[in-house]
Amino acid sequence: MSEIILVVDDEARSIDTLRRVLERERYTVRVARNGVEALDDIQICMPDLVLLDVTMPVMNGFEVCRRLRDREETQLLPVAMLTGLNDDESRILGLEMGADDFINKPFERTVLLARIRSLLRVRRLTEELESTERVIFTLATTVESRDPYTEGHLRRLASYSHALATAYGCDAKEARLIRYGGLLHDIGKIIIRETVLQKEGKLTDEEYEEMKKHPQIGANIVAPMRFSVSVGPMVLHHHERWDGKGYPHGIAGDTIPLGARIIAVVDSFDAMTTDRPYRKGMSRSQAVQVLRSGRNTQWQAELVDLFVELIEHGHVASDDLSWVLHND
């Protein structure tokens, strides 16, 4: 199947030129004659590349580009702006709105095709990376299936982490990354023996040392992901303590990444309120008391207080994982 290029332009001559050049190279060309039409078309059928004129009626190219970048499903869609404007201000504005490239009018065929091939190559690499990420997310759910007593743990952690991050004042992007961290935090347990994961009773010193390896292994597993710079430290440090007595590095206070501090609170709460082979889960009120007793020692006090407030107001609920496992 040929790659789809959406041409967004209100000039018939420009459209005809682009269509002729692109179809000769066996690309599938779709056309929108203004920004609103383009946004509607993209929602119906996602293209592989958008060639976007800057100056159009109804909605200019800068605004179209901004709206594409504001939508999660089109944040990584390649966009090249078509322009007869050669001033630096227009180019800077386009880059700030999220454009990947500028192609000057009138088009020089060789340059046009070289730019298009380059952008489509990046698109293909991005799709390969997305496929790898879906495998990693699926692997995370596999970890949960190895321990029947933690069923639903990842859904709850993803939801709890997102809720607490939002309450703490994180913007939508950071809260979403922390949600990913909540989902992936225990992925390193894939290498831990099931006899250790499912053991009824206290771990031996040797077993505990084995268990303590999972944050570093998890950070290594998520390293190929696009957002590993943000999520990797959450996975690595989610067992650190506010007072510096955690693992693997024994860091303390604000030196612990925010996402890891958030996950530490919600992970502990979920562990306390979940049944285990060797004990019954606590009630929510009992778990809240434990969280409060660990303010400024095990956990950051402000995060504990915010999470308790969310619990008491009924704002903490589980979630399903379709949002990430099937995020096309």
Automatic annotation (TrEMBL):
Annotated HD-GYP domain residues: 128-323
| Keywords annotated in UniProt | Hydrolase, Phosphoprotein
**Start and end of every Response regulatory domain?**
4-120
InterPro entries hit by this protein: CheY-like_superfamily, Cyclic_di-GMP/3'3'-cGAMP_PDE, HD/PDEase_dom, HD_GYP_dom, HDIG_dom, Sig_transdc_resp-reg_receiver
4-aspartylphosphate-modified residues are 53
An example Gene Ontology molecular-function term: hydrolase activity
Matches recorded under Pfam families:
HD_5, Response_reg
Where along the sequence do coiled-coil regions lie?
none
Matching entries from SUPFAM superfamilies are given as: CheY-like (SSF52172), HD-domain/PDEase-like (SSF109604)
What domain of life does the UniProt record list for this protein's source?
Answer: Bacteria
Tell me a GO biological process for this protein: phosphorelay signal transduction system
Q: What is this protein called?
A: Phosphohydrolase
Recorded source organism is Herpetosiphon geysericola
- Lineage of producing organism: Bacteria, Bacillati, Chloroflexota, Chloroflexia, Herpetosiphonales
